[in-house]
Write a structure and sequence with these properties.
CATH architecture of one domain in chain A: 3-Layer(aba) Sandwich
Oligomer: heterodimer
Structural class of chain A: alpha/beta
Mean pLDDT of chain B: 95
Radius of gyration of chain B: 11 Å
Radius of gyration of chain A: 18 Å
Strand content of chain B: 25-35%
Strand content of chain A: 5-15%
CATH superfamily of one domain in chain A: DsrEFH-like
Number of strands of chain B: 4
Largest interface: A-B, 19 and 18 residues
Structural class of chain B: alpha+beta
Strand order of the largest sheet of chain A: 4-3-2-1-5
Number of helices of chain A: 7
Shape of chain B: globular
CATH class of one domain in chain A: Alpha Beta
Number of domains of chain B: 1
Shape of chain A: globular
Mean pLDDT of chain A: 88
CATH architecture of chain B: 2-Layer Sandwich
Helix content of chain A: 25-40%
CATH topology of one domain in chain A: Hypothetical Protein Ychn, Chain: A
Low-confidence stretches of chain B: none
Number of helices of chain B: 2
CATH superfamily of chain B: TusA-like domain
CATH class of chain B: Alpha Beta
Number of strands of chain A: 5
CATH topology of chain B: Translation Initiation Factor IF3
Largest sheet of chain B: 4 strands, mixed
Helix content of chain B: 25-40%
Largest sheet of chain A: 5 strands, parallel
Amino acid sequence: MSKSDPNAPKRLALIASKGTLDWAYPPFILASAAAAMGWEVAIFFTFYGLTLLKPELTAAVSPLGNPAMPMKMPFGPEGFQNINWPMPNLLMANVPGFESVATGLMKQTFKNKGVASIEELREACVDMDVRMIGCQMTMDVFGFKREDFIKECEIGGAATFLEYAADADVQLFI
Amino acid sequence: MTDVIKEDQVLDCSGMLCPMPVVKTSKAMKELQSGQILKMVATDPGAPPDMEAWSRQTGNELLRSMTEGGKFIFYLRKK
């Protein structure tokens, strides 16, 4: 499907390669914004990004090895909420359940600030006909089946994505 | 003295952050007929530059962009 028509809409090609909560946002934000501007959009979900196509999104965030991540509290007075809690890796690695705490804090902070959830953003993408391509090779490697993913996605490989991306105005690897 | 713009539809995106004002605006515009006007209200400080970009990209004219009581108000005419 080459973009031979000069009046065809602009086209965005994204690769979503990461499956953590923080990295789940950029592809869905950019895809929904582009689709809202009338662009054609496709996202290729590969490696850890493939899990973003599961019906139940379980994306979590790990501050481990994420040294620039601010740790903020989503409750209390404004001054308290603005404190950036220093969390040394050594401590985080040894506290059971720390990831689920960090994930909960990030979700609540985002919600309080008015950021849509990953579920809402993905639903907006589906509504606006964003093409979502799950990586066949990743499925084989991690042992996923077609029915493990939402019905709105398609399954393809590198060639499927590259053919689309070749005619895209913007291509981003996330 | 600026003319009063009469909108056909109002969309309140107060409290929403990027990209939802743009996404909701796009959805609301689909319900309108060509020439009709949407008034969109937002509180996201990123909305003014984003709505200008959205208008340029979609060809729906941004008739007016203003600030009122800490809110950003946009009048958009469907192409």
